[in-house]
């Protein structure tokens, strides 16, 4: 049986740690796995489009890549709401 080196804490203690902004000591990040398999792709955009994407990403505090993923997911869910 595999045992965790992280000590168990109560939910209220975890909530307090979360509120203080540091829960990393309570997470087992080495065993975390991606929920969905990913595949890397490359897309070329004109420079002015990249600049606009970067501005929008900065407004909401995410990376360019994250923003593009958000936009694609939103577009797909609006066209396939039951998927």
What are the SSEs and their pairings?
Blueprint: H1 11-20, H2 47-60, H3 64-79
Q: Give me the Rg, rounded.
A: 19 Å
Can you give the helix content as a percent range?
40-55%
Gap between N and C termini, in Å?
38 Å
Biggest sheet descriptor: none
Shape, principal axes of CA atoms: elongated
The SSE string, one letter per element, is HHH
Mean pLDDT comes to: 85
Count every beta strand, where a strand is a DSSP E run of 2 or more residues: 0
From the helix content, strand content and strand pairing, which structural class follows?
A: mainly alpha
Low-confidence stretches: none
* Helix run count: 3
Task: Kindly give the count of domains.
Answer: 1
How big a fraction of the residues is strand? Answer: under 5%
Annotation keywords:
3 helices; 83 residues; 0% strand; mainly alpha
Structure description:
The chain has 83 residues and is mainly alpha-helical. The protein has one domain (11-79). The chain has helices at 11-20, 47-60, 64-79. Helix 2 packs across helix 3 (64-79). The longest helix has 16 residues, at 64-79. It is elongated and about 50 Å long. 0% of the residues are buried. The mean pLDDT is 85.
